[in-house]
Amino acid sequence: MPTLWEWIKALPVLLVCVIFAVGSAIEQKDWLWRHDSDRLRKRRQIASQAPIDTIQGWIKDCDSHSCLKQKVLKFHLPTRVIDITDFKKKRARRIFLKSSQGLVTERYICLSYCWGGHVPLLLLKENKSQMEDSIALESLPILFHDFITVAAALGARYVWIDALCIIQDDPEDWEKEAASMNLVYGNSYLTIAATAAPDPTYSLLPERLSHGVFVVGISLARSAFLDPGFLHHGDKDSKWSTRGWTFQEYLLSARVLHFGESELVWHCNEDQRCECGNVKATQSLREAQMAQLRGVFKLAVRKFLPKKNWTAQNRDRQAEKIAAWHICAELYSERALSNRAEHVIAISGIAEAFTEAQLGPYYAGSWEASFSEDLCWQPRRDSGIQKAPAPWKPDYLAPSWSWLATGRPVTFHHKGHGFKTQIVVETCQIMTESSRQWAKVIGGYAKINALGVRIPLLWIRKGNYIYIQST
């Protein structure tokens, strides 16, 4: 055993070892901090390529419009939001999940994007309390980090991202929040659409060309929404423009800022702007339909008409609203969903907005005031149903008389105009999985009175298909 004198002689060596060990630990910790900061700083530098001054100019101009007043935005916060107040700090960059209970109304920015890829962080039951304390920036996919960077640069205090604000492994919470998209996107101050990103593993800002700002020189007095076909340089063919959930996120938002492959595109209820100015003079059939939809949708859901029984004077407007719903249904039916079971829920936000159109109760894709017109749909010839290699056995989505029952592209014959019917709906009932109106549909029936015509039919079986032909 060493003596006291030997311990005293060894003391300088021990002190040197301790100092070296502590110094190494500090250096390692500092290197890790610098390494982490360099990685995140690189993401912030990439996101800073967004022309914030241009975006703020567009927002300022829009604030002087009447579109927000028409939308009657109150900025009521969703159930949960991400607080990014401290994101701009140099050191203690802290973001965290926050319940909106007890909070005053506040502006927030939503993200509209495509699911897919590897998302390392989702809100779950087990990590909810941890995320309420702090969310590690390193755990965010590239898209989410870029979005938060841009939102913070625009002065936002709160943001909303569905993957981080809806408990993904809690069916009750998911159903409740999924049925609230009309309020979430309808009340957002701004929706940022990751139009060029196929999934969250991609950047919000891919390599972009530099363009001058151009104000589209067209009148949009009755136009509330921008057709994805307006996006230039191939963005109209992006994955974002083909997804079911993004359709209502886009349509319900008062103003949307698209981050496209080559440029930014802005639209609000009264204006459209882009960076390049390459606006096509001609419109496709889809663009013409969307142009009609934009104005009629705004008219349909913004309480422009008094709540009273329809008269001959405003019956034509009711027909326009029915036509708007049919166009919505056709365009939505073309969209894809990762989970077919969400087919009815993913349009519930638009349906909820249409309740202000005074069309009566909603019956899983149909309205009381237009029930007979809503029955006049058929699968599109290019929907692929007739070319299926085997009998198609879909999961139950809605009653068979509803266009939502197919989960495939459909078309309507009349779209609200020139249609006369002698059908009388006696009763209609839709059963849902829970007491919520916009919950998953599990059954339904309708009883109608109508004139009948006896028509002899011939059933012809060819392979796996049965064809019905009148004789």
Give me a quick take on this structure.
This protein has 471 residues and is of the alpha+beta class. The chain is built from 13 helices and 17 strands.
What does the model show?
The protein has 13 helices and 17 strands. It is of the alpha+beta class and 471 residues long. The longest helix is centred in the first third of the chain and has 44 residues. About 15% of the residues have low confidence. It folds into two domains: 238 residues, no CATH class; 122 residues, no CATH class. The radius of gyration is 28 Å and the shape is elongated.
Topology:
Blueprint: H1 4-47, H2 52-63, H3 67-71, E1 80-83, E2 96-99, E3 108-112, H4 128-133, H5 142-153, E4 158-160, H6 162-165, H7 171-178, H8 181-186, E5 190-193, E6 214-215, H9 244-252, E7 256-259, E8 264-267, E9 272-274, H10 285-301, H11 315-333, H12 348-354, E10 362-363, E11 366-367, H13 371-374, E12 377-379, E13 410-412, E14 424-432, E15 441-449, E16 457-462, E17 465-470
Parallel strand pairs: 3-4, 3-5, 5-7
Antiparallel strand pairs: 1-2, 1-4, 6-9, 7-8, 8-9, 10-11, 12-13, 14-15, 16-17
Helix pairs in contact: 1-5, 10-11
Mean pLDDT across the residues is 74
Number of helices: 13
Query: What would you call the shape?
Result: elongated
Which percent band covers the strand fraction?
15-25%
What is the topology, as strand order, of the major beta sheet?
Answer: 2-1-4-3-5-7-8-9-6
Would you identify the regions where 5 or more consecutive residues have pLDDT less than 50? 22-36, 209-234, 279-285, 303-313, 383-393
Q: How many domain regions?
A: 2
Question: Largest sheet, described in full?
Answer: 9 strands, mixed
Alpha carbon gap, first and last residue: 112 Å
**Count of distinct strands:** 17
Order of helices and strands: HHHEEEHHEHHHEEHEEEHHHEEHEEEEEE
SS class: alpha+beta
Rg computed from alpha carbons, rounded to a whole number of angstroms: 28 Å
Tell me the helix content: 25-40%
